[in-house]
Design a protein that fits this description.
This protein is mainly α. It folds into 2 domains: 87 residues, Orthogonal Bundle (Rna Polymerase Sigma Factor, Chain: A), CATH 1.10.1740; 83 residues, Arc Repressor Mutant, subunit A, CATH 1.10.10.10. It is 75% helix and 0% strand. The longest helix is centred in the middle third of the chain and has 45 residues. About 12% of the residues have low confidence.
């Protein structure tokens, strides 16, 4: 029966972190070999799913590489410090998963405006004609279905940035990345505009 390797001592781990702080890649590989199993256990207890835990563990070691110089042995044992990094990355991962599920729900809600948006697009309206301005063209509005007219009215109630982002997404069928490029804003800003715009549209379409 093969004996298990001895547990690394705090001084050994502290020395490795000091070397990593000097950008010693070999020290990082050694640290990984000595601690990955235990740190993976921290991640899997929080995340349950193995693939998530593996992703978080890799992310945690990237952070250990970046912040090894911040480690202070008089504040925490090295394994405790690393476990805290893994725990924080795992909790961040869970928050991202929750936000992505919420975004998926918003995209599902966007189905409520899909039909009216199609009617609005088929009416001949363009972004340049109706998004930037404050007045709708009565002749164009007459061509729209009741639902599409309601959508056009609700779109007018959005903030200008939200209105443009939603219109580009659902009338021009642009991806978030394409919208970010079109409007010259960060991707995260576009996602926020679309999400909030859809939430407002849904409430407006429901008469709230």
């Amino acid at each position: 029966m093969t004996a298990l390797p001895p547990e690394p001592t705090p001084p050994e781990l502290t020395a490795l972190l000091a070397r990593i702080a000097r950008e010693d890649a070999a020290a990082l590989r050694t640290l990984y070999d000595l601690t990955a199993t235990k740190l993976f256990g921290v991640a899997i207890r929080i995340l349950v799913k193995r693939e998530w835990a593996e992703e978080v563990l890799q992310d945690a070691f990237i952070n250990i590489w970046r912040y090894a110089g911040d480690y202070r042995e008089n504040i925490a044992a090295p394994l405790t410090w690393m476990s805290t990094i893994v725990r924080n990355r795992a909790l961040d991962f869970l928050r991202r998963q929750k936000n992505e599920r919420a975004a998926s729900a918003v995209r599902a809600d966007a189905g409520d405006i899909a039909g009216p948006a199609m009617a609005l697009a088929e009416s001949g309206d363009t972004l340049e004609e109706w998004l930037p301005g404050d007045e709708a063209d009565p002749a164009d509005s007459a061509l729209l279905s009741e639902a599409a007219r309601q959508l056009a009215l609700c779109m007018k109630r959005l903030d200008a940035n939200q209105r443009q982002a939603v219109a580009l997404a659902y009338l021009r069928d642009q991806s978030h990345a394409e919208i970010a490029q079109t409007l010259a804003v960060p991707l995260g800003t576009v996602k926020s505009w679309v999400r909030r715009g859809l939430e407002k549209l849904k409430l407006c379409m429901e008469g709230q």
